[in-house]
């Protein structure tokens, strides 16, 4: 007896899962109640040490559309790659396990993807919310849906920094052999940056708010305390800086130059300051050394930094004086805290 032909789903929703037992139910429920049911959900449990893996298993028992991968902890990029390997859908959506999608998001997306068949990526907007707001969140949809098809022309015009705010044609990604860098903290931004600056393709930008992005306060409080984590962030930002500084195309493109300036500013100021706050010098010395090595590649012209003028002047004048100034600020902050 012949088996019935297997019809792949229209969407594959790939969700990395790590220690989110407080949030994963909300995420899955927002997907499973969709009016359009032509999808599969791929849950990649990335070595969770809480009840996340068990929750995923329980959901899979009652929902045939859910696939589960249990693996050792290797980070978000590795989990997304694992999901990408087994995805069968025509289009991919990378959703974070503590976020939600709007009620009819898949219906709206399918309608747009069928109307604009010549696109490889569909971008949409997000709504930010904090933990207590999830139950009372009201979503305002635009009266008129703006939909603009563009071609990248190997530039970053219209590029989101987060992959969760895009739908990707799976065949397109596989043809380009695109995967997430597993040793990069900013895997989202780097993934899209390489995609938009190396390939020419049509994409659609819309003003539909289809993604609900949770701002987790406990993450913001703890992210600055882990010296090793900050060290890894610095190395990833350095990779981003080095990649951007080597791009020769579109040097006169305003959006690209604005993006380049933002990367430079974050690289030179934000992450340097974070590193200098740490006590474990094994992380800071190596990072500061790399920063000093590349720091003179940053052009002096223009107001590149969203910070005080004195920091910008000192930074452009002499990196060593800039570092000393930051250390002095940190020392003064500590003294004020003690008093």
Explain briefly what this protein structure is.
With 339 residues, the protein is of the alpha/beta class.
How would you characterize the overall build of this protein?
The chain has 339 residues and is an alpha/beta fold. Helix content is 45%, strand content 18%. Strands 1, 2, 3, 4, 5, 6, 7, 8 and 9 form a 9-stranded mixed sheet that branches. The longest helix is centred in the last third of the chain and has 23 residues, at 254-276. It is globular and about 65 Å long.
Average pLDDT metric: 81
- How much of the sequence lies in strands comes to 15-25%
DSSP strand count: 9
Summed up, the helix count is 12
> Radius of gyration in whole Å, from Cα?
22 Å
- Specify the overall morphology: globular
- Give the N-to-C terminal Cα separation: 82 Å
List the defining traits of the structure above.
9-stranded mixed sheet; 9 strands; 45% helix; 12 helices; 339 residues; alpha/beta
SSE order and pairing:
Elements: E1 11-17, H1 24-32, E2 39-46, H2 52-62, E3 66-71, H3 76-86, E4 91-94, E5 100-101, H4 105-115, E6 121-130, E7 147-151, E8 166-169, H5 170-175, H6 187-198, E9 202-215, H7 217-222, H8 227-246, H9 254-276, H10 281-294, H11 309-317, H12 319-338
Parallel strand pairs: 1-2, 1-4, 2-3, 6-9
Antiparallel strand pairs: 4-8, 5-9, 6-8, 7-9
